[in-house]
Design a protein that fits this description.
The model has no long low-confidence stretch (mean pLDDT 96). The strands form two sheets. A four-stranded mixed β-sheet has the order 4-3-5-6, covered by helices on one side. Strands 1-2 form a two-stranded antiparallel ribbon. Helices cover 25% and strands 18% of the residues. The protein contains four helices and six strands. The chain is globular and about 35 Å long. The chain has a single domain, classed as Glutaredoxin (3-Layer(aba) Sandwich), CATH 3.40.30.10. The two termini are 23 Å apart. With 158 residues, the chain is α+β, with helices and mostly antiparallel strands. This is Glutathione peroxidase. One of its GO terms (molecular function) is peroxidase activity.
């Protein structure tokens, strides 16, 4: 049976990002965009990361341009925007697709583990997936759900 730790991705700096390095960590994986009404969630995602990283939380952002082209920049542009405007220090991956024939394998797996209220496809930016330390248990949260609303669940699973 596959776990999140079996996957790899390309980090924003074009290096390989192996999820195996995150064994026994709790992961919050989010499809992100810089020009979205939910973009201010970057601030709260960073707050969660700073508050809980020493307890084993890793926030991972996957930029995506599939929703109204709200992530048009290059990987370098995205990284600079996130750092300068939102103080992001958590890992950012290279821009990906989260739906359709080019869906990144990480998101194909996440959607299989935790479908949404209206089916498994991702409906918008800032859909959040909380993966517990076992690498198998996945909780899905809608874009409208504030990252800070996840604190009780984080405290339960960390």
């Amino acid at each position: 049976m596959l776990t999140i730790y079996d996957f790899k991705a390309v980090a924003n700096n074009q290096s390989e990002f192996d999820f195996a390095q995150l064994q026994n960590k709790t992961l919050l994986i989010v499809n992100t965009a810089s020009k979205c009404g939910f973009t201010p969630q970057y601030d709260d995602l960073e707050k969660l990361y700073q508050q809980y990283k020493d307890s084993g939380l890793v926030v991972i952002g996957f930029p995506c341009d599939q929703f109204a082209h709200q992530e048009p920049g290059s990987d370098a542009d995205i990284a600079e925007y996130c750092r300068v405007n939102h103080g992001v220090t958590f890992p950012l991956m290279s821009k990906i697709d989260v739906n359709g024939k080019n869906t990144h394998p990480v998101f194909a797996w996440l959607k299989e583990q935790a479908s949404g209220k209206l089916g498994s496809s991702i409906k918008w930016n800032f859909t959040k997936f909380l993966v517990e330390k076992d690498g198998l248990t996945v909780h899905r949260y809608a874009p409208t759900e504030s990252p800070l609303a996840l604190i009780p669940k984080l405290q339960e699973v960390l």
